[in-house]
Design a protein that fits this description.
heterodimer; A: 563 residues; alpha+beta; Rossmann fold; Elongation Factor Tu (Ef-tu), domain 3; Alpha-Beta Plaits; 5 domains; eight-stranded antiparallel β-sheet; 12 helices; 32 strands; 36% strand; B: 396 residues; alpha/beta; pyruvate-formate lyase- activating enzyme; 2 domains; nine-stranded mixed β-sheet; three-stranded antiparallel β-sheet; 17 helices; 22% strand
């Protein structure tokens, strides 16, 4: 059997992370000889995918809260622990990776007991890699976690907790049967949708699918109905019998809401339709992905895409480029602003270029998020400075242990989506972790900084920033672009402007030499190939007006820091 | 009109001369031997400081044998011995090669017979040997007149040796003499380049080639730069280039190619013909020839080259077949290096009318008119050639 069985995507396996929850059934014979069926769901841990966690928790009786023995409790550990507690689940604290040289299992266990209450000795010490402690863990599961309840004789109630699209079989729903049974050949109803479907096939995943013909109360498995439209089978919906069904659905959960928006444009304008098709396909397995067509003067036709967070954005982009061979330009990420208009109306804005003119604009509201940062205590000062420079407001501060502290802030989301995470990591030598959740909208003193190349405003470079930082941002952006934009046939002035006021300017001087000396011994082939290779390299450039701009320039704003 | 009359009649940058040169037939002989490898060089050479003197006689025997295996070509209008360092060979060995060429291909009346000479190898006696062998032209590897730059370039001669060589070449009666210069090394200053230009002018040679120092991957120079040594600067090189062109044209030199300047009647025929897309045969280590729409190349390693000859085989390591369209692209790419430019063929015209072509014209880099497409800012030649290669490709 290969490693990382449940992380099926190449990206998951490469990065060692879980993006998509996955379910599996295993049989287990306990120490006392009893036979158990264990249904496990492997979930992501990252904040961007917490909705995957919450809907998985709704399908379970208990949760294994894993921490890395070398890292200890991280911000996402806390966030997910709270989710599990809120869902009323029994929690088993687990310290994993105890085989690592840098492991400090006792410290991690101490921190876990600080978070969950209870004794540090409650934590199960394991190494998923070497197998150490796995028997203890399985015993802990059968001893501690309650068996599933439910009424097998009652009308069917099954929770759809995930779904994916299979090219041959259509939509495959992952379900937890709470009451009654789900049997092939029967007709079932999606209670929220009010749609009836025929049950073509049901079974369990081990993790390969294994057809069982039916699933009864307490079981977790898959369901195929031949449906091709993934929008029909919504995650969180309840299945019941089409005839004499249950009256009350199970409690579902909120739809994930995109928080970060970015323009995605094909480098080659001819690829627009391919990009649309690729997004449509990705959406089959990722209902959180929202997009609408957008036109940029600089970049042509593309899409404004909404993401759950920065990691989600990075993953979607990478999948589009790798799985669909698209060459993309991504604009700097933006949050969802609310523009209050002079006439009393309000406009939702997903990118700087959509902000109304200052004449029509009364004020701008921006989303704030509750931020939780866990850091070694020696970096408290550093972290505080960073957060304050990003308009963060200090909330609570708790010591998890003498060495580690939990900091709470209220911060504009826009300040996080630039380079905050990278800055936090680099200033704490990688030890701090971050989690956030939406809090509220607030009116802020925001301005749009435009960038002009060769005296022409480039919409894709516009950014909304706080007024106090506009000058520093303008200067930094112009400087960065001067470094990134190669010399052209003519001088290219780069300017930053607020409205018609120029706040920074630099110039990319015209290129003066682009020639190599003689061809050695008449080797024209080599000369030609060199020129062709260089030309190939230039294909990664985007023509903006008459200026060649490298793709990385469009995300330059991401990497701008004040220092 | 034969090449001798043509070169006498037309100025070096004449479009008529460039078009005539496309029909000349040349031969290139690679002489790989060097006293040591210069830090910027990535050519196929045999570094004699590493393993003692190589066997020149064996090598020349192999070259002569290779010539004997060649298909019909010629008669030859120009023969050029390049390197490496051709002047490491005794005149008798060079003569043996010329003899083989004459037997195999024949030589035109007044054919140009040229070789590269390093100043430290020169003696008038050596020069008399060259005259006896039939040489009509010598190109001296002067590189610089600044001792600090010569040292940085790893050259073994001093500036005085250059003057001695030029006067020696004149004394023994070789009718055309040129020097090569390399500019833009970080060790060179604006003032020292100025002095080098003045010294070059004072020698009153017939031909000057000026090459900007290029950092080739895998060379000692590129390693030094990676380790923190200063790299050549494009803007500085552009300034030095233009300064040279200005001074040289005031002294009667006509620039006929990006790097080549000649007085009337002294264009290097082999050089001009190569850029005009003429055909040439080439022999020796790592040599490349161009005939009948084919570009073929030889082994770069001496043991393989000699081994192939010994086995009675042509020492080819690769061949590229070019159809009419791809030959046309090469003609365009190469012709753009000539001051005379390239004929405004349908391909060239398409390029001139393309978006990229129009940008170059607008920027004052390229010019189309009088049936020619020519670059007026030679320092930007590769930028134009790069686009020319791809535009014509897409349009066909």
């Amino acid at each position: 059997m290969r490693d990382q069985v449940l992380d099926e995507m190449d990206l998951e396996r490469e990065r060692g992370i879980t993006i998509k929850a996955n379910a599996v059934r295993i049989d287990y014979t306990a120490a006392n000889g009893d036979e158990y069926e264990l249904n496990l769901i492997d979930t992501p841990g990252h904040v961007d995918f917490s909705y995957e966690v919450s809907r998985s928790l709704a399908a379970c009786e208990g949760a294994l809260l894993l921490v890395d023995a070398s890292q200890g409790v991280e911000a996402q550990t806390l966030a997910n622990a709270y989710l599990a507690v809120e869902s009323g689940l029994e929690i088993i604290p687990v310290v994993n990776k105890i085989d690592l040289a840098a492991a400090d299992p006792d410290r991690a266990a101490g921190e876990l007991s600080g978070v969950l209450g209870g004794d540090p000795g409650d934590a199960v010490m394991v190494s998923a890699k070497s197998g150490a402690g796995i028997d203890d863990l399985l015993e802990a599961i059968v001893e501690t976690l309650p068996p599933p309840g439910g009424r097998p004789e009652a009308p069917l109630r099954a929770l759809v907790f995930d779904s994916y699209y299979d090219t041959y079989r259509g939509v495959v729903a992952l379900v937890r049967v709470v009451d009654g049974s789900l049997t092939e050949g029967e007709r079932v109803r999606l209670m929220a949708r009010g749609v009836d479907l025929d049950v073509d096939e049901v079974g369990v995943r081990r993790p390969k699918i294994e057809r069982t013909g039916s699933l009864v109360a307490g079981e977790v498995g898959y369901l195929m109905t031949g449906v091709k439209d993934i929008g029909l089978i919504r995650v969180g919906d309840t299945l019941t019998n089409a005839d004499k069904g249950a009256s009350e659905p199970l409690s579902g959960y909120d739809e994930p809401k995109p928080m970060v928006f970015s323009g995605l444009f094909p480098t080659d304008g001819d690829d627009f339709e391919r990009l649309r098709e690729a997004l449509d396909k990705l959406r089959l397995n990722d209902s959180s992905l929202l997009y609408q067509a957008e036109t940029s003067r600089a970049l042509g036709f593309g899409f404004r895409v909404g993401f759950l967070g920065l990691l989600h954005m990075e993953i979607v982009r990478e999948r589009l480029e790798r799985e669909y061979s698209l060459d993309l330009v991504a604009t700097a990420p933006s949050v969802e602003y609310r523009a209050n208009l002079v006439d009393g109306g309000q406009q939702i804005v997903h990118g700087p270029q959509d902000l109304p003119d200052s004449g029509r604009l009364l004020s701008i509201e921006e989303p704030y998020v509750k931020v939780m940062i866990i850091t070694p205590s020696q970096y408290i000062g550093t972290v505080m400075e960073l957060v304050q420079s990003r308009r963060g407001e200090m909330g609570e501060m708790n010591y998890l242990s003498p060495e580690r502290v939990e900091l709470h802030y209220l911060m504009p989301l826009a300040e996080i989506v630039f380079d905050f995470f990278d800055m936090l990591k680099s200033r704490t030598r990688g030890y701090a972790s971050l989690d956030y959740e939406p809090a509220e909208y607030r009116i802020s003193d925001l301005v749009r900084v435009d960038i002009l190349l060769n005296a022409q405003s480039v919409d894709a470079f516009s950014t909304v920033v706080h007024k106090d930082r506009a000058y520093a941002y303008g200067r930094a952006m112009v400087h960065k672009l001067r470094e990134l934009i190669p010399r052209q046939l003519f001088d290219v002035p780069i300017q930053a402007a607020i409205g018609s006021r120029i706040i920074a300017r630099e110039t990319v001087k015209a290129k003066r030499k682009d020639v190599t000396a003689k061809c050695y011994g008449g080797d024209i082939t080599r000369k030609r190939k060199l020129l062709e290779r260089q030309k190939e390299g230039k294909k990664r450039m985007k023509m903006v007006g008459s200026v060649e701009v490298p793709q990385e320039a469009f995300v330059a704003a991401l990497r701008i820091s004040e220092d | 009109m034969d090449p001798t009359d043509s070169t006498a009649e037309y100025p070096p940058d004449s479009p008529v001369l460039a078009d005539l040169a496309a029909s000349w037939k040349s031969a290139y002989i690679h002489v790989p031997f060097c006293a040591r490898r210069c830090p910027y060089c990535d050519f196929a050479i045999v570094d004699e400081s590493a393993g003692g003197a190589a066997d020149h006689t064996t090598y020349i025997g192999a070259v002569a044998a290779e010539i004997g295996m060649a298909a019909d070509f010629g008669p030859l209008d120009a023969v050029n011995f390049g390197g490496g360092t051709p002047s490491r060979l005794a005149p008798e060995l060079l003569e043996r090669v010329i003899g083989a060429l004459e037997v195999q291909f024949g030589l035109s009346e007044g054919a140009e017979m040229s070789l590269e000479v390093n100043p430290e190898d020169w003696s008038d006696e050596y020069g008399r040997g060259l005259v006896d062998a039939g040489f009509t032209r010598v190109s001296i590897g002067a590189q610089s007149f600044d001792p600090a730059v010569l040292d940085a370039l790893g050259r073994l001669h001093d500036p005085d040796a250059i003057a001695r060589t030029v006067s020696g070449v004149r004394t023994v009666g070789i009718s055309s003499v040129g020097i090569d210069l390399i500019f833009g090394h970080p060790a060179e200053t604006a003032a020292s380049w100025e002095r080098s230009i003045a010294a070059a002018m004072a020698l009153e040679v017939d031909h000057i080639s000026t090459y900007s120092l290029t950092v080739e991957p895998g060379t000692a120079l590129s390693r030094e730069i990676r380790a923190g040594a200063p790299a050549p600067d494009d803007d500085v090189q552009a300034d030095r280039y233009h300064r040279f062109c200005d001074v040289a044209s005031g002294h009667g030199f006509v620039r006929y190619e990006v790097s080549n300047h000649a007085r009337d009647g002294h264009v290097c025929r082999y050089n001009l013909s190569t850029w005009a897309h003429g055909e040439y045969v080439a022999f020796g280590l790592g040599a490349h020839d161009h005939r009948w729409g084919r570009r073929e190349r030889n082994h770069r390693r001496l043991d393989r080259y000699l081994g192939a000859i010994e086995a009675g085989e042509r020492p080819r390591v690769g061949v590229e077949h070019l159809d009419d369209f791809h030959q046309e692209r090469d003609r365009l790419m190469l012709g753009l290096r000539l001051a005379a430019g390239t004929p405004l063929t349908p391909t060239a015209e398409r390029f001139a009318a393309s978006e990229a072509g129009r940008r170059f014209i607008q920027a004052g880099i390229l010019e189309a008119g009088d049936g020619r497409l020519r670059i007026i800012e030679p320092m930007m030649t590769d930028a134009v050639a790069r686009e020319a290669l791809s535009v014509s490709w897409h349009d066909c």
